[in-house]
Amino acid sequence: MTLIQTPFTKTSTADDVVAGLDLKGKRAIVTGGASGIGIETARSLARAGADVTLAVRNLTAGQEVANDITKTTGNPNVHVEFLDLVDRASIAAFVSRWSGPLHLLINNAAVMASPLLRTPEGWELQFATNHLGHFALTLGLHDALKAAGNARVVNVSSSGHLTSPVHLDDLHFERREYTPWMGYGQAKTANVLFAVEITKRWKDDGIVANALMPGGIMTNLQRYVPQETLDKWAEAERAGKIKMKTPEQGAATTLVAAVSPLFEGIGGRYLEDGTEAHVVENDVKANNGVRKWALDPETASKLWDASVELLKTPLPTKA
Hints:
Number of domains: 1
Structural class: alpha/beta
Strand order of the largest sheet: 3-2-1-4-5-6-7-8
Distance between the termini: 52 Å
Largest sheet: 8 strands, mixed
Shape: globular
Radius of gyration: 18 Å
Order of helices and strands: HEHEHEHEHHEHEHHHEEEEH
Helix content: 25-40%
Number of strands: 10
CATH superfamily: NAD(P)-binding Rossmann-like Domain
Oligomer: single chain
């Protein structure tokens, strides 16, 4: 499989990617669109003329962001809808409110490195938020994506996937020791596997999906990261060992996956720094690239089936 190379780099911005593109008539959803790189993803889509819906938990913050995007882009077609990815009733309600075709679904929202927290179903929070919530949302929007005729799903993953495969026999850390980064790694690997399987199952419906690593960006995504770790990252950046991106740069790779003509009709890939990433062996130390375990078609199929079964769990009883 030949890697797709683009003219974009780690310093490219989201606006660089959409420059010259006309997205009028295209409808997009960005989960987590009221913070971090979600804002800049939505802003650049709007600047290129797309009709954008911010799917957010905080409607007040979402409306403020929508107003700002409209002000800075001149595009009035920026909407705000409530969505809580750990609440299946909320996901179902969001899906029921959607009508018409959907051209771009940007599964951007995430939780990073949280302590061991569980949903009312008993599911580990990072897996439930980063994967299962987006899984339920995407399946619910299948018909809307199909109706678009040529739709793309974009799963925002992370280099964190390099730290852990998906453990199908213990997805929720019920029998193994939990660490925040292992939980994050598993969920981010699931994001890539989901893109692989979407493309396999839905390509004939005109739907493809890709996953990506946006880069290191300091946003409220790091709210659970210990201060000691944040200090180490800052020290490494001062020493020139790492280079953090701006939110505008962080959103660029998302936009490549979402709108670049080079990925038209192509899915099951993993992008990094604006281009398709190289594959790394599972047993090799690496800070970039995509693990083989994240692209494994057998695991992708099994994860899909396991996710479907989990979503059959009876809804928790409200207190």
